[in-house]
Hints:
The protein has 420 residues and is of the alpha/beta class. It has helices at residues 6-11, 17-30, 47-61, 65-71, 80-94, 108-120, 201-213, 267-281, 286-297, 300-327, 356-365, 399-418; strands at residues 36-37, 103-106, 122-123, 129-134, 153-155, 159-162, 167-171, 183-189, 218-221, 244-249, 261-264, 335-337, 344-348, 368-369, 371-372, 390-394. Keywords: Aminotransferase, Pyridoxal phosphate, Transferase.
Amino acid sequence: DPRLSHLGQRMSRLSGVRAINKDIAETLQKGGSHWIDLGAGNPVILPGVEAMWRRYTQELMAEPEFGKVLCRYGVSQGYGPLLEAVVDYFNREYGWGITRRNVLITPGSQSFYFFAVNVFCGRDADGQRRTLLLPLIPDYTGYGGILIEESDLQAMPPTIEKQGSHTFKYRPDLDQLQVDKQVGAILFSRPCNPTGNVITDEEVAQIVQRAAAVDVPVIIDSAYAIPFPHLTYVPMNLTWAENVIHCFSLSKAGLPGERVGIAIGPEHLLQSVECFQANASIHSSQLGQAIAARAIRSGELAKLSEQVIRPHYHKKMEHLQAAFAREFPQELPWFLHKAEGALFAWLWLPDLPISDRELYQQLKQQGVVVVPGSPFFPGMDPSWSHQYQCVRISLTASVEQIEQGVAILSQVVEQAHSRT
Ligand code: PLP
């Protein structure tokens, strides 16, 4: 549309996986309930978790505070009792010594990334370009659409470590990682959507140190991390540093509809983002913030994350791995990413004769939906073949569906190999 601005044109395109999601949604609508949907990013509604959110909402409704929460504007930084609950919780559990000024609540963590990267990246006051550096891709496709200038994205391919005959792990290529003044911010998810990778504490420390040397902020997307939703299957730590912003989300802890993201970091980094948010959206929904305050203050959110949410997906992951071992031919080259966290499995098929998108199409014909891997490589040089050899498999389906889906996936992959 010629009436649209340059930015308008860019933002009217569906970025990365959202374009695929549209195709998936249309596909699923056509076939009724016959599909095996291993594509969904929407978390499972777990009974104990939903009951907790329901109870805190009912409690709130019975109090005079309810009117204030619903019928009054709040402050852009966030709803006071939630800021207090976050400060108390993180000081108690992690000894961070933070105050309210170190916390910013946004309508979901996605909007924090949008605000923050455009505060730190793009043209600076001297007209110099500052890039958003993704130190390891594949990573969350939502990062593909958050920069106002698309060309400001700089993404680094990982090193690949094979572990045993059918497992691998991505590592940030620290030999290649150079952080200089041209970098505006560094961003990565940990645990990672789509791979389930958890960059190690030492690797994080290296990245943070190199960024600190040139005064570059590091934004760590903790949408799947401890303490909530606690979707981690290996030990990991959260470390406070003067150039790090930790971003937590309640979306995978049962509250995606209410849009509550919690950023914790140095005050000077959060302040500009807070102003951006005030300009763009005033503040996040206070109903979500008010029930989140209660769930964090009581410790129940962290407890249910550890005792209900984490085991739910971990069990599914174990079934998926067993199904792969059972169904996939041992002699074929296939590798699952080491299961370290999040709610996905990531499959790499190095010698697959067809592309990830073709595999997606062929699987659809057999009634199975997965997510092709290539959209998870935003900013990647298109010539790197690895990006067309992976698919993401969601753990939100039932165990039976996961097992059936893996069996069909194995047949389709075998057929693709045997045709060449
Ligand atoms: N970051 C990652 C890695 C995600 O997977 C998602 C959602 O799927 C988000 C951020 C967005 O989360 P929110 O609902 O908090 O905006």
